[in-house]
Amino acid sequence: MATRMTGGEAVVDALKANGVETLYAIPGIQLDHLFNALYGAQNWLTIVNARHEQGVAYMALGHAQSTGEPGVYVCVPGPGFLNTSAALSTAYAVRAPVLALIGQIASTAIGVGGGELHELPDQTAIVKGLTRWSGIARTPEEIPELMQTAFAKLKAGIAPVAIELPADVLKAAAELPPARPAVAAAPRAPIPHAVTRAAALLAQAKAPLIVVGSGAYGGEAALARLAEHLEAPVVAHLQGRGVLPSTHPLAVGFAEGQRLWGEADVVLAVGTRFHEARRNWGERAGLRVIRVDTDPAQFSRGAPPEIAIEADAPLTLAALAEAVAAGPAKSGRAEAIAALKAEIAQAFATRLAPQMAYVRALRAVLPAEARIVADYTQIGYVSTAAFGVAAPRRLLTPGYQGTLGFAYATALGAKSANPDMPVVALCGDGGFLFTGNELATAVQYGIAAIGVVFVDGAYGNVRRMQEELYGGKVVATGLTNPDFVRYAESFGAKARRADGPEAFAAALEWAMAETGPTLIEVPVTTFPNPWDLLEP
């Protein structure tokens, strides 16, 4: 039965119907009628209002990355929306299920160029460029369908998405049907003939190699069966780490992958852009490639694969595992793979000893279910390769976007979505202050994320490059920092300074025992260059 409601009430109705329990939001005049509707939703909806628009967007990102469920944020148009663009582009890079509800000026003023408050020349075009689907509500009657479409897209892995909400449309009332939860389309099964061809190619391979990304989430068990039957090492980078647990004998990183690539005769790439492997290691003549992805556009990037399977990755992995199981299991590579893993582990331990001391402390203290949010800082870089990950969504990175400063606010979203799991943001002093003001939000809402700031007084990675590659011409990389312990305490958070890895481990134990937000400041010196191991 239709009910008379405003556009703002229709948005709230759709949030409830789709199970949204947390909304990251900053109010503003174009959103007044939405927030008026949100007032009555506070018995089922937690509204987290941050201190900067980038904060709400990063929190939605952390919520989405750490759970796989929609992370929803609200912002005003114009400068408010633009402040969220770095986070939204990061969500695009990692395909995080983020829904951006973006205010707009009055629908009658869009495109007129009259200089309305927060008006952009073409906000809609910018929104389209940062999302995989977007819409704009021109009337309140359009809102229920737009909201349902947005949630359906997210369920289908089309992410991030956005809806623009003009101020007058949020105010206007209409007879509207009750919101219905979005239903995801059935995942696309692979074509049997393609599975048969791929399985035959893998079965005849002498040195098969599997490369996985976040598109393989949900296929963990099938991937393990397939890899074990083929005795095929599984390379995971950034978002793909944890699809096969780091402790599995066949789980390898990028450094091992580079060596294995040279001897591989068949590569199965599942749910990955496959860009870093092809860019760094080359598209070798004679290498036979099978690719699995829901996005067929991926198949045309780089050399075309011999077999392209446009289908759901978990279903395809299960079908491949079943198909190859009909033949004999492969053997004979386990010893060489174990030796290679040991060699690379030793290289990390010796050549990157200062960074690895902190990474080992993290792994020793944190439980397996903890979430690590790795910013673009030395310990973050090395953690993306060397921190043991037991399952997907436990190592959060900005993917190829490389968004400096994303980690702390993203960790707040991850922690608010996973209140019973430790969440640690690994930041440098160059990136922490991008969103360090959100300590105020953490204290206000009791979000007990652990922030770690490694302090070397510089944009350290850039400074080292200037020293090593440009003859010591150091420019614009020095930093003047606050006392980070006192900075955190000024917001009402608890903080400690930790000098060295042992003190850092003790500080982590302390922070995990606290019930509110904490910060650990770790003074460090220049670290050795990690890049030949991280991106060989």
From TrEMBL:
Domain Thiamine pyrophosphate enzyme N-terminal TPP-binding residues, every copy: 5-125
Q: What is the superkingdom listed in this entry's lineage?
A: Bacteria
Which residues does the UniProt record annotate as the domain Thiamine pyrophosphate enzyme central?
195-320
An example GO BP is: isoleucine biosynthetic process
Cellular component per GO? Answer: acetolactate synthase complex
Q: Which InterPro entries match?
A: DHS-like_NAD/FAD-binding_dom, THDP-binding, Thiamin_PyroP_enz_cen_dom, Thiamin_PyroP_enz_TPP-bd_dom, TPP-bd_CS, TPP_enz, TPP_enzyme_TPP-bd
Q: Which NCBIfam families match?
A: PRK08266.1
The protein's name: Acetolactate synthase-1/2/3 large subunit
